[in-house]
Write a structure and sequence with these properties.
Length: about 280
């Protein structure tokens, strides 16, 4: 009987690992193909049958892509916009999440679900009203147009942080209230340090989203000096007649590097936040 249960357990684990490997392959293979293709000469990129490993490694595509346009400026724009937006989202979203999780006020649940329902509205639906609003305020074609739409947080960030604030024992809040600690001091001194792993995880998630944002920066800015990396890659290496595959794959690999480094530096916090999810 014990052997039978062990065999069943091994079969379940084997099936789980197979599905995990399939998911890993589907997620990583396109990135691996793009990265290795960037090291191929132009003729080898279009060779048939295609090969994953380059036969002749070359770094010329990276040099060509970097010098094709002022990518140093584009990277500074993306880094600045991503940093400011993510910091704003972390600050304002965590405050709103703390209020919804820890402060009792009339209609708290109702207002939270109304706020959460905004996640069901596609971003493309509000883009035209948002564009008109920024045009009236004369903020188009400026850094304000790139920063303000996401600076004050999103419903996802509020929901994400609220779950972690609710997981903190009520006895801790009661002890702080007995000691005369107000909500502001309680939020800054007690609750925020306890959810550092969640803040970093949310910051990484939002950093990836802001860094890769393409459509809004494309329609909100016109000047080349304001371009972010995704917009620059699309406008420099795409045209109506052909696609510059050498520059495109190399530039895409360069654009991916900051996100990979950010993930490597924060992976321990991500694992910790996932491990603590659901515990109270």
């Amino acid at each position: 009987m014990g052997l039978s249960l062990r065999k069943q357990h091994l079969i379940k684990m084997g099936i789980t690992y197979v599905f995990c490997l399939i998911g890993f392959f589907c997620a990583v293979f396109p990135l691996l193909w793009t990265f290795l293709t960037a090291f191929k000469p132009s003729r080898e990129m279009l060779a048939f049958p295609p090969s994953l490993i380059p036969r002749h490694f070359t770094f010329e595509n990276f040099i060509y892509a970097w010098n094709r346009a002022p990518f140093g400026r584009f990277f500074l724009n993306s880094i600045m916009v991503t940093t400011v937006v993510v910091l704003g989202q972390i600050f304002f979203s965590s405050m709103a999440a703390f209020a919804f999780a820890r402060i009792k006020f009339p209609g708290r649940t109702f207002f939270f679900f109304c706020f959460l329902s905004s996640m069901m509205v596609p971003g493309i639906v509000i883009m035209i009203p948002q564009f008109i609003s920024f045009r009236i305020l004369r903020l188009l074609d400026s850094y304000w147009a790139l920063i303000l739409p996401g600076f004050f947080g999103t419903a996802f960030c509020v929901f994400f942080m609220r779950q972690f604030f609710m997981a903190i024992p009520d006895s801790l809040q009661e002890a702080a209230e007995i000691d005369g600690c107000g909500y502001v001091k309680m939020f800054i001194m007690i609750f925020l340090p306890m959810v550092t792993h969640a803040l970093i995880t949310m910051g990484l998630i939002r950093a990836v989203a802001v860094w890769n944002d393409f459509l809004w920066p494309l329609i909100a800015t016109n000047r080349e000096v304001l371009r972010t990396v995704p917009v620059a890659i699309a406008t420099v290496f795409f045209n109506y007649r052909n696609i510059d595959w050498a520059g495109l794959t190399a530039a895409s690999s360069i654009a991916l590097a900051p996100l990979v480094l950010l993930f490597l530096f924060t992976r321990d916090y991500i694992i910790e936040s996932v491990a603590l999810t659901g515990f109270k």
